[in-house]
Write a structure and sequence with these properties.
With 308 residues, this protein is mainly α. It has one domain. Helices cover 65% and strands 2% of the residues. It is built from 14 helices and 2 strands; from the N terminus they run ααααααββαααααααα. It has a two-stranded antiparallel sheet. Helix 1 crosses helix 13 (257-280), helix 3 (55-69) packs antiparallel against helix 7 and helix 5 runs antiparallel to helix 6. It starts with a helix and ends in a 16-residue tail after the last helix.
């Protein structure tokens, strides 16, 4: 092993401790190891297995999605009125992470059970926004908004912090992941990059940054992950997430010149650190899913045959 490799592995160890402190394993109750041979909802030939295997892109992408979601008054109201985000935003992030990981990599029955559980929760989330608009978490339109913001964030995170994604591969990704949104009840879910761009164009007039949006963003800006140098870690990933926003979003979120400069710096730093995250996390759920199908995890390093 070269000196550079030795130094890299030494740097990867604290990163591994950081990730496992923030997102402990074994708490979700999801079994990624059984039954043998079950490919789950996507399987190893999917683009989704590759995009969702990259921790830096997924965490930054998830935070980017949250920033977009606070702009939708009815989507925000469900979180504002029915969740404990003020006291346990870390727990909310962990639950969302577990759902995405489970529906991506767990065997079919478990993935379907996760979807059924979330559908049941959504049926109980109803109310009115501050200005009297009715909302329901199982509204197909709201489910589509949440899904598209997440899929956009994950794809852009992979592109920014891992490697380039050809357009045909990106289109396949959007076409694949919509099956989870549709299983939750979403309708007319965009299935390509062009459709996502058109969808954002249609949605922009419905978005606003109001007092509730600001409150949620203030909570997000103060979040303290249970890791060393929590403030620096938070600012790094929040900035890296902001770097993934569509071009129209930062001004709507009132990101000024200073914040935009901080965003650019954070994105550059995470891009440089991302290989260390991959070195530190070779035994994650994607690797376990590959083992369940008795294939090498290294297969996910290449793009699948899109003709299949």
């Amino acid at each position: 092993m070269s000196l550079i490799q030795t130094l890299a592995r030494s740097a990867a160890l604290p990163i591994r401790r950081w990730v496992l402190s923030a997102f402990p394993r074994g708490q979700s109750g999801i079994d990624y190891d059984h039954p043998m041979g079950d490919p789950g909802l996507f399987g190893p030939h999917s683009v989704t297995w590759r995009i969702h295997a990259d921790f830096p892109g997924m965490l930054a992408g998830g935070l980017s999605a949250l920033m977009l979601q606070v702009l939708h008054p009815r989507a925000l109201a469900g979180v504002y009125d029915h969740s404990n985000f003020r006291d346990d935003l870390v727990g909310r992030l962990r639950r969302t992470t577990a759902f995405v990981a489970g529906t991506t990599y767990a065997a079919t029955d478990q993935a379907q059970q996760l979807i059924a559980r979330v559908r049941t929760i959504h049926q109980q989330v109803r109310g009115q926004t501050a200005d009297g608009m009715a909302y329901a978490a199982d509204d197909p339109a709201l489910l589509t908004w949440v899904h598209v913001t997440e899929a956009h964030g994950f794809l852009q995170g992979y592109r920014r912090y891992c490697r380039a994604v050809p357009d045909a591969v990106a289109d396949r990704y959007y076409d694949e992941v919509r099956r989870v949104a549709e299983a939750l009840g979403a309708r007319e879910v965009p299935a390509s990059q062009a459709q996502v761009r058109a969808y954002f164009d249609v949605m922009q007039p419905q978005l606003r940054y109001d007092s509730r949006s600001r409150e949620v963003m203030e909570v997000l800006d103060r979040i303290r992950l249970p890791v060393p140098v929590a403030g620096i870690s938070r600012d790094l990933f929040l900035g890296a997430g902001a770097a993934l926003l569509p071009a129209w979003a930062p001004s709507l979120l009132e990101h000024g010149a200073v914040r935009r400069a901080q965003t650019a710096v954070a994105a550059t730093i995470l891009r440089g650190m991302a290989p260390l995250f991959r070195m530190a996390l070779t035994d994650g759920v994607s690797a376990r899913a590959c083992a369940r199908l008795q294939i090498p995890a290294a297969r996910l390093a290449g793009w699948p045959d899109l003709s299949r």
